[in-house]
Amino acid sequence: MQIRTQRLFLSTVFALLSTVLLLCQSCTEAGKNGTNKTVFRYNQPEALSSLDPAFARNQANIWATTQLYNGLVELDQELKIGPGIAKSWEVSEDGRTYTFILRDDVYFHDHEVFKGGKGRKVTAQDVAYSFKRIIDPATASTGAWIFNDKVLSDKNGAISDTAFLAVNDSTFKIYLNEPFIAFLEILTMPYAFIVPQEAVAKYGKDFRANPVGTGPFVFKQWDEGNAIIMHKNPNYWKKDENGVQLPYLDAVQISFITDRKSEFLTFMQGKLDFLSGVREGSRDLILNNDGTVQDDFKGKFTVRKEPYLNTEYIGFQLDPTNLKDPNPAVQDKRVRQALNYAINKKEMVAYFRNNIGIPGHSGMVPPSLPSFSEEKVPGYSYNPKKAKELLTAAGYTLQKPLKMRLSTVAEHKELAEYMQKKWAEIGVQVEIDINQGPAHQETVDNGRAPFFMKSWLGDYPDAENYLALFYSKNFSPAGPNKTHFVNAEFDKLYEQAKLERDVKKRWELYQAMDRIVVEEVPVIVLYYDEVLRLTQNNIEGLEPNPMNMLKLERVRKTD
């Protein structure tokens, strides 16, 4: 009844929004912004804290810095590695030395820090400086982990001065302690973008608001909390297939509307060109229950549902050390399996997410990655009969019910309540503990949540990044292993996979690891996320990808 009432309310909202849209069509600028300049406008509801790539830890910072900087290598729309500032590279036979040859036509943005205000050419010394800066404790970068424990270090773990070597202006080398097969993927991350020493020296910590890069757009203005303006880089080094210099757009404007309903209304009014990650209320407005676009919205703008490298899961804290009230039940694999079998993941994704997402019927690795195989890594589908059998075998009955407490955040309250109901159907009593995001994160990271909802958004497109969550040397809070899962066979396979250069053999190792995760159930995989992206009909060239990157250098905006 509550859901029906909500849908009636949403229908009323839709009628109001349609009226607003009609009223605003006459005053919409269609991208001209009062001049002949094309301005791409997107909103950033989450906080944007820095335009310094050393702090590109969240989507807000990543999307903005991607417009301003480049790295040695970059991902294409299919997540394949291609050249960036480096036009070519070689990896030594032992997998420990990476040699990059830089382009000779990449220049930093024009800026007063350079002689005559003209941006100078990027050299291998700039790359060495940028990478050393990331690991310098004085920088306090959240991205130091991309190099720590990977690049050449001494017996005490201190990174060697020769780990990053500028052989000459155009040749750059990186030396690793041991082969790390996903290292090139790591170098595509914004943390590895190249910055000029002159600008960092001038601004210090204020470099966050005075960025100077090599990217398609040049920083113009940041009115914090209101807007960021970037202008076209007239000296950008990239051209399209026809020899036309990129970018096509004249400017980018980022707004900071925090209320999701206001954000959606602004898009409906034509005042935003792009919207990503549409939330519950607006999602119900746009999509039918089966995930198809409602007739009222067809043709008004472009709607795309795309795979997203994000796995939503429930974790069990297997290390009781920091738990206030340890629950011995979570140590029993049969209990963890029973809780998994009790959830109808297909129904959950359809009913609460309008079929945005893929039910988690495999392991931790999402379908967007090439090593994924539900056939080779079968997970848990809905089987309440099996769930009850496992609970009984573990010693839990109606007379002696299993009691649990699930920690989550307000955003996932409806999903948690759905699972609470499904667990109740097999005799499990679950209380829901709602926390603010930062408090929830801190509690989980420090091992004080016995049973918790979390997600893992891939840092780079390789299954190793997901399986690292279960490697015993990666315990949180320093590492991503939030469940403190320990399995000797898993660790052996993980260490073997890091060195395996044969792609198909490495995938087999990944699948073997994921099968262990499925069997031992340190996590319940709920669903593999998808992202709903809306664009105005006059936007061309904004191609989606599983990393949900926002690359605007090839985007066009027509009348």
UniProtKB/TrEMBL annotation:
<dbReference type="InterPro" id="IPR039424">
    <property type="entry name" value="SBP_5"/>
</dbReference>
<protein>
    <submittedName>
        <fullName>ABC transporter substrate-binding protein</fullName>
    </submittedName>
</protein>
<dbReference type="InterPro" id="IPR000914">
    <property type="entry name" value="SBP_5_dom"/>
</dbReference>
<feature type="signal peptide">
    <location>
        <begin position="1"/>
        <end position="30"/>
    </location>
</feature>
<dbReference type="Pfam" id="PF00496">
    <property type="entry name" value="SBP_bac_5"/>
</dbReference>
<keyword id="KW-0813">Transport</keyword>
<keyword id="KW-0732">Signal</keyword>
<comment type="similarity">
    <text>Belongs to the bacterial solute-binding protein 5 family.</text>
</comment>
<feature type="domain" description="Solute-binding protein family 5">
    <location>
        <begin position="80"/>
        <end position="474"/>
    </location>
</feature>
<dbReference type="InterPro" id="IPR030678">
    <property type="entry name" value="Peptide/Ni-bd"/>
</dbReference>
